[in-house]
Amino acid sequence: MRKGRVLEVTFDDLHYNLALEEAIFTNLPNSNFHMVIRFWKNPPSVVIGVGQNLKSEVDETYCLLHNIQIGRRISGGEAEYYDSGNLNISFFINTSTLSDLDTIEQYGDFFTNSLIESLRNTGFNEVEKEGYSNILYLNKKISGSAGYLRKGWFLHHATLFHKANLEHLEHSLVSKINDPSDNKDSRYHPTVNLPIENIQNWKKSLLKVLEHKLDIKFVQSFLTNSEKTLTDKLTSEIYCQSEWIQNKRRIL
Predict the structure, then answer these.
(1) Whole-model pTM over 0.90
(2) 176: which DSSP letter?
(3) Which of 186-190, 210-214, 236-240 shows the lowest mean pLDDT across its residues?
(4) Residue 128: inside a domain, yes or no?
(5) Which pLDDT band, with edges at 50, 70 and 90, does 248 fall under?
(6) What is 145-164 written as a DSSP string?
(7) Is residue 176 a part of any domain in this protein?
(8) Are 173 and 57 in contact (CB under 8 A)?
C-alpha cells in the first residue's frame, strides 16, 4: 500500500504559507511518500495566479484600507480571496500514482471529483462541478482550485468557503461586474459559504475517498527541517518581494 502524509500546518503570514507550498513540493522527491495533503488557512488576503496581472485582478486600495494582504502563488488559475473562514486543501502527488492522467486539467478534474464525492458523503448532495476546477452549491461557488505540474509531481490546491467574509471577497477582487468592458467571464462567480458544521468529519471523509481511490494510507505528520529552511529562504527572497507580487519576477 502507498504511503500518504497529512499536514495540518498553517501560519498567520500569507507569504510564508505560499512559500511553504513550494518548499513541500520541492522536497517531495526526497521523501518516501506518494502523496501529501495539507489543510491550512490564510489571514485576510488575496492571492493571484502566477501569470495574472495584479492591477487587473485586485482592488489594491480596498485591500490596503481593510488590511488584506496580497500575494502571488506558483500555480495558474484565478485570483482568490482567503480568510479564516476559507479552508485551503493542497494535494501533492507523484504523477505515477495517477499514471492514466496527463494534463493539469485531468489532474484537476480528479481532485475536484474527489472533493465533491467527500462532500456528498457528508450530506451535501446539491454540490456539482463547474468546469474542472470549481465546485458549486445551489449554483453558487464554494470552491475554486488551481494546479502546478513539474518533474513527475503535481500540486493541486483548492478552497472551501464555509465562514468567509463575502463582502471582502466581492470588493477586494476586480470582477467583471465592476468592469463591464472586461470580456473575461472567468473572473467572477457569485460565491456562498457552505453551511458545514463539522469540518473535521468532512476531512475524514475526504481522506477515506482518496485512500480508496489510490490504495494509499495517510498518516499525520510534521514539517521537516529541510522544509522549514527552504520556506524561510523562499519567503524572504521571493514571496515577500514586490518584484514577485507585482511583476511575476523571481530574483534569487
Answers:
(1) yes
(2) T
(3) 186-190
(4) yes
(5) confident
(6) EEEEEETTEEEEEEEEESS-
(7) yes
(8) yes
Residues counted in the chain = 252
Q: Provide the domain count of the chain.
A: 1
Mean pLDDT score, 157-164:
97
| Residue whose C-alpha is closest to residue 194's, from 164, 157, 171 | 164
> In terms of residue numbers, what domain contains 140?
2-247
Percent residues over pLDDT 90 in the chain: 85
- pLDDT mean across residues, the chain: 93
Of residues 74, 89, 204, 69, the one with CA closest to residue 135: 89
pLDDT of residue 4: 97
- State the CB neighbour count (10 A cutoff) for residue 30: 8
Q: DSSP assignment of 154-223, as one string?
A: EEEEEEEESS--HHHHHHHB--TTT-TT---GGG---B-----S-HHHHHHHHHHHHHHHHTEEEEE---
CATH value at residue 229: 3.30.930.10
Which neighbouring-strand residues pair with 86?
161
CA 133 to chain centre: 11
Instruction: Name the strand (E) or helix (H) holding 230.
Output: helix 225-234
Residue 252 belongs to a domain:
no
